[in-house]
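Workshop exercise sheet. Pairs work together: one partner reads the sequence aloud, the other fills in the structure field after running the prediction. Swap roles for the next sheet.
Pair: D.N. / O.F.
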Amino acid sequence: MLQGKTAIVTGSTSGIGLGIADAFARAGANVVLNGFGDAMEIERLRSDLACKNGVKVVYSPADMSKSKAIENMVRQTADTFGAVDILVNNAGIQHVAPIDEFPEEKWDAILAINLSSAFHATRLALPGMKKKGWGRIINVASAHALVGSPYKSAYVAAKHGVFGLTKVTALETAEEGITCNAICPGYVKTPLVEKQIDDQAKAHGIPREKVITDVLLTNQPNKKFVEVSELAALAVFLCSDAGASLTGTALPMDGGWTAH
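Structure field:
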């Protein structure tokens, strides 16, 4: 389905990003992995994706809090593959604390990685997409792009901003053969959420199991974590011909959370 296309997936060495990168590779796209982690494990992931699917997979260690690093990643992708056809802005971090106790440096880091990185990657990828008359931008937002939760001021602010950026990008590119959408997952069992469970347990003074049932999944009516494979399948659909008229939207995959 995506043969000949090239996709950058930020924050793709684990979790949702890795699931999307894997789905793109299986659909025939060349993939640029990005993120932090053990160098040997990342190389194993890269090699495995390439060999299993017969596509080219490269790794960029770009720090998504640095605009120059993002610029280098996009330029190197264009130099290697000719263009960036698909951009998935997925990189994200989290910190949980009351507003009046929220560390300034955590606020700055979350806004930089969760929001500003999406802006920088988008502005740098768009010229090549416009030149080709085709492009897909997928912003992995969150149910928190649509609703708020206590103790997550920076994350909620950033994700609301991501959805705003999504709408503006879609409007500006509507006649260019480019779409931009936001996927808005509920809670997904990823390393980021595992850390949230630990942080919430500490903040509330309750066991991890209680955090899962009484804090996290209390807002998801189906009482289940979203599967990474479900989000990956949605991302592939958005890049297909069938998704060509879907742009500027927030697509919740949250077990009914935002239906409240």
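Discussion prompt: Residues 6-187+226-259 form a domain with the Rossmann fold fold (CATH 3.40.50.720). What would you look at next?
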